[in-house]
Amino acid sequence: MQEMELLKQRLLQAVDEHQEELLGLVSSLIQIPSENPPKDSTDVTHFVYNYLKKNDIEMEIHEASPKMYNLVGKIGSPEGKKLIYCGHTDVVPAGDLSKWDFPPFSGEIVDGWMLGRGASDMKAGLGGIMFAAVLLKRLNVELPGELVLAIVPDEETGGEDGVPWLLENNLIHGDGSMIAEPSSPNHPTLAQKGSCWFKLTVTGVPGHGSLSPLEGVNAITDAIRAIAEIRKVYELEIEPPEEVKEILRVSNDYMRLHEREKYEGILEKISCNIGTIHGGTKSNVVPDSCTVEVDCRLPFGITQNEVYALIENKLDEMGIIYQIEPFGFRSNANFTSPNDPVCRAIVDNITYVTNEEAYGVMQWASSDARHFRDYNIPVLQYGPAYLPSIHGYNEKVKTEDIIRCAKVYLLAAIDFLNEPAS
């Protein structure tokens, strides 16, 4: 135990001594635009590959589809346990540049804040896991197991070219995984709501606008009626299974403690966002088609298929002619036990580094975590972030959070890989 304590202190000191390298790495990642869409991870992949190779970490490059590259690197002993540290290289588009207070790909540090698109989601976390692996390699830390870096594209669109592609092609394996996605400083996320994205296409009958509503069937007005019915899924009372009630209780308590009372209850509800609507050709033609994109997030206790069945039954009763086509993020609610070794390794070392209470909570969104759980790999998410800025203008993260997370990544890898397999 004394030897392990000395190693941990050595690693913490190393992060402090090389923090400028860590921050410079994150800044460089932000300065490489990797917006998705479009699907092109070429430039950021080359940078990551060259940085890790320069630091003696051999990386395999796997092209899942044109210009969509996955990187897999390993350090330590392949004979022991395997821990996957995962991060995605893509970011959401910067949007209207005039609404930013600084260039979105600046990567500048101002008053203790790292600035730019991807600062919180999730190039600071990506830089942290890269830096952790480099320090372990540089300091010749003997690992009784294997730390696997899985650096992927295509997370922000819910695409299939990243984590699911690596898993399906048997290119990564693990006894546990940590994704460096944004989280609260002391509260990693160990459960996610399900995701049910679908496109509703309503079909009508064209006619002359001057005769509407006597002539034709208006697809837009039918879509409006359908939308009103679909939004009622939020009102459903859903009973969660016993096995997740404690996670829900802790997560709701967390929201109250952190002044998020207005969101209380969302974990047990089907959220419903009408994201886009397109229909018609011109004002004097009865529209014969209208397409609506919907994002529902599902609590424990209901599945995607059950939601589709509920919606379809209602629309059928209303006599609407429609088609539902799933797309994007699709999953049922999923979780990892807080008692799993990978969760304990992260949570215990947050407390070790910060001297503050840490515990896992549930996330109301979705992520790549669902794919790991599909393959029976326990997983949680922990990363530096200023949560209000994610996917918005003026995205940023505190530099102290970047440094803290890198320390946790290092120590958690040591604890997890040194613990005997169960």
Automatic annotation (TrEMBL):
Keywords on record: Cobalt, Hydrolase, Metal-binding, Zinc
Protein name (Swiss-Prot/TrEMBL): Probable succinyl-diaminopimelate desuccinylase
Record-annotated Peptidase M20 dimerisation domain positions: 191-317
Pfam families, per the entry: M20_dimer, Peptidase_M20
The keyword Zinc is assigned to this record: yes
Similarity comment: Belongs to the peptidase M20A family.
The enzyme's E.C. designation: 3.5.1.18
SUPFAM superfamilies hit by this protein: Bacterial exopeptidase dimerisation domain (SSF55031), Zn-dependent exopeptidases (SSF53187)
Top-tier EC class: hydrolase
Record-level GO BP terms: lysine biosynthetic process via diaminopimelate
Source organism of the structure: Aureibacillus halotolerans
PANTHER family recorded: ACETYLORNITHINE DEACETYLASE, ARGE_DAPE-RELATED DEACYLASE
Gene3D superfamilies reported in the protein's UniProt record: 3.30.70.360, Zn peptidases
Classification lineage: Bacteria, Bacillati, Bacillota, Bacilli, Bacillales
Annotated InterPro entries: ArgE/DapE, ArgE/DapE_CS, Bact_exopeptidase_dim_dom, Peptidase_M20, Peptidase_M20_dimer, Peptidase_M20A
Pathway of action: Amino-acid biosynthesis; L-lysine biosynthesis via DAP pathway; LL-2,6-diaminopimelate from (S)-tetrahydrodipicolinate (succinylase route): step 3/3
Entry-linked PROSITE patterns: ARGE_DAPE_CPG2_2
UniProt catalytic activity: N-succinyl-(2S,6S)-2,6-diaminopimelate + H2O = (2S,6S)-2,6-diaminopimelate + succinate
Molecular function (Gene Ontology), one example: metal ion binding
Top-level taxon in the UniProt lineage: Bacteria
Cofactor(s) the protein needs: Co(2+); Zn(2+)
